[in-house]
């Protein structure tokens, strides 16, 4: 009889983890994944085809790191203050998240390379006395900038997803420990804790990919305003006003969409609960010949669910209006000149 410490799933492959044995170039271009993708194109992958996880990605290591940080928070916190889950997570895995944020910032900055270089290229084409080497340099800058942007966003997505996986593992481990010691009379039932482990932990994992947008979006807006100020002067304020006026509408639509999504989830929960009850009592349903009745009930709930989903898609928030149309009429008011170079770079 196997002991409790025996692994239920143990890969037969003795090869080291892919990321551990990969080189810098392999990690940068993700070529360490090529053999697995090639094998997957030839046959259906099985558990034995997968390489083992590296130590830093294993649930045991992640859980031990988090619980050590959490224990330190509990011992240093003074009542009535309570240790913060967010601070514990970021103190444990925050350095990788910071590296991902640096890559996101580099990519956001390089987004403005194209309009600036395009302006210089138009000026180069208009100047017949400019050396041909300047054109090659400008083209090379655009080419290299595009490559660096692609590398940065790919590595950012990988690192952010990696941190999200660690967040989810740590939260699930903490909730599992809580589930083992929860009292029967507790206000939190074991079912609620299970939902936290399956739903909320996954939401935290998905949140890490977009979490850096909190500072990246204002950074992009600030750089855009500075560049527009240089190109068209005070006229850019009209576009900025349009963006500011659009914020309340966006917040209202987001609040409305949240209410609709809550209704959709309620309908989905009701339909899922009914399906589970039918499957749980399928013997009684078959004996009483109630199949058609339950099919009609489930189908009716499905129709309502699909209609609410269609309504949710139709009421999705509209796209943000561009700031260029209101800016260009005001650009004619100040004594500034409007050229093809200014127009092209400002529109970008």
Which stretches of 5+ consecutive residues score pLDDT under 50? 319-324
Structural class: mainly alpha
Extended strand count: 0
Compressed to H and E, one letter per element, the order equals: HHHHHHHHHHHHHH
SS field, number of helical segments: 14
Main sheet, how many strands, which sense, barrel?
none
User: What is the straight-line distance between the termini?
Assistant: 68 Å
**Estimated share of beta-strand residues:** under 5%
Count of folded domains: 2
Percentage of residues assigned to helices: over 70%
- What is the overall shape? extended
Q: If you compute it from the alpha carbons, what radius of gyration comes out, rounded to the nearest whole angstrom? A: 28 Å
Rounded mean pLDDT score: 79
Task: Describe the protein in words.
It is a single chain. With 348 residues, the protein is mostly helical. It has two domains: 17-34 and 48-211, no CATH class; 235-348, no CATH class. The chain has 14 helices and no strands. Helix 10 runs antiparallel to helix 12 (291-314). The protein is extended, with a radius of gyration of 28 Å. Residues 336-348 have a biased composition (Low complexity).
């Amino acid at each position: 009889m196997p002991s409790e410490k025996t692994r239920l799933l143990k890969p037969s492959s003795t090869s080291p983890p892919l990321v551990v044995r990969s080189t810098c170039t392999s990690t940068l271009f993700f070529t360490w994944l090529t053999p697995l993708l090639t094998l997957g194109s030839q046959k259906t992958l099985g558990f034995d085809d997968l390489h083992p996880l590296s130590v830093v990605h294993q649930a045991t290591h992640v859980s031990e790191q988090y619980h050590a940080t959490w224990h330190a928070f509990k011992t240093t916190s003074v009542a009535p203050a309570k240790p913060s889950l967010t601070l514990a997570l970021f103190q444990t895995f925050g350095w990788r998240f910071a590296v991902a944020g640096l890559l996101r910032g580099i990519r956001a900055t390089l987004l403005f390379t194209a309009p600036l270089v395009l302006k210089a290229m138009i000026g180069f084409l208009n100047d017949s006395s400019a050396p041909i080497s300047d054109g090659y340099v400008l083209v090379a800058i655009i080419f290299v900038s595009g490559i660096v942007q692609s590398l940065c966003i790919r590595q950012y997505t990988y690192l952010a997803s990696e941190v999200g996986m660690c967040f989810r593992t740590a939260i699930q481990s903490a909730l599992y420990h809580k589930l083992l010691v929860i009292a029967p009379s507790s206000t939190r039932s074991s079912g609620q804790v299970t939902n936290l482990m399956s739903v909320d932990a996954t939401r935290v994992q998905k949140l890490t990919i977009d979490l850096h947008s909190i500072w990246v979006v204002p950074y992009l807006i600030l750089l855009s305003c500075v560049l527009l100020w240089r190109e068209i002067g005070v006229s850019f304020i009209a576009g900025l006003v349009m963006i500011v006026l659009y914020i309340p509408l966006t917040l209202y639509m987001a609040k409305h969409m949240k209410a609709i999504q809550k209704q959709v989830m309620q309908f989905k929960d009701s339909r899922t609960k009914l399906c589970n009850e039918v499957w749980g009592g399928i013997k009684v349903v078959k004996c009483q010949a109630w199949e058609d009745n339950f099919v009609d009930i489930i189908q009716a709930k499905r129709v309502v669910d699909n209609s609410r989903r269609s309504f949710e898609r139709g009421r999705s928030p509209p796209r943000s209006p561009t700031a260029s149309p209101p800016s260009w009429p005001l650009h004619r008011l100040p004594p500034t000149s409007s050229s093809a170079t200014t127009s092209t770079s400002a529109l970008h």
